[in-house]
Design goal:
Arc Repressor Mutant, subunit A, 9 helices, about 180 residues, mainly alpha, single chain, Rna Polymerase Sigma Factor, Chain: A, 2 domains
Length: about 180
């Protein structure tokens, strides 16, 4: 009988220590199984192989409700099934109305905000900037420096005395806010 099968039998008998001894023996194989599972998932999957392995493992060796493992193969078949269920649950959660339902991400075209081509666009941008200044004055300053002074993100950050990371965060927030307002 292999070490894995022996540990599975001890887990079935309620030995909590056996569960912690099992993970190092099966982790690499479970990780490969998880990676294969995730590679066939559609783009945009946020669940990582490590998280999938850990969640599946916790479900498999729950000492509160012991399983009866016939063999090592039985354990890995159950692990594959647990991973499938976790992926299905994750997909259902993402599609729930609470998490945006069937909404999809839309690409924000920076050039529509950064360099308006028509006079009407500039007027709309000016109105939106006036409203935005009341919401977040510092982010509004980043937009003014980027759009009207032609400064880069680094130059804008230096001019305002903030870090590049903060300037980038404010710029991203401002673009999204203005895009929503202008549309």
């Amino acid at each position: 009988m292999s070490d894995v099968t022996e540990l599975l039998k001890r887990i079935d008998a309620g030995d909590g220590q056996a569960a912690s001894n099992l993970l190092p023996l099966v982790y690499d194989e479970l990780r490969k199984l998880a990676a294969r599972r995730l590679s066939s998932e559609p783009a945009g999957q946020t669940l990582q192989a490590t998280a999938l392995v850990h969640e599946a493992y916790l479900r498999l060796v729950d000492v509160e409700s012991p399983q009866e493992w016939d063999s090592r193969a039985h354990f890995f078949v159950a692990a594959a099934e647990a991973m499938r269920r976790i992926l299905v649950e994750s997909a259902r959660r993402k599609k729930s109305l609470k998490r945006g339902g069937e909404l999809s991400r839309q690409e924000l075209v920076e050039s529509r905000i950064a360099a308006p081509s028509e006079a009407g666009d500039i007027e709309a941008l000016d109105e939106a900037l006036t409203a935005f200044a009341a919401v977040d004055p510092r982010a509004c300053e980043v937009v003014k420096l980027r759009c009207f002074a032609g400064l880069t993100l680094d130059e804008s950050a230096a001019a305002l005395g903030i870090s590049r990371r903060t300037a980038a965060r404010l710029w991203t927030y401002a673009r999204a806010w203005l895009h929503e307002r202008i549309e």
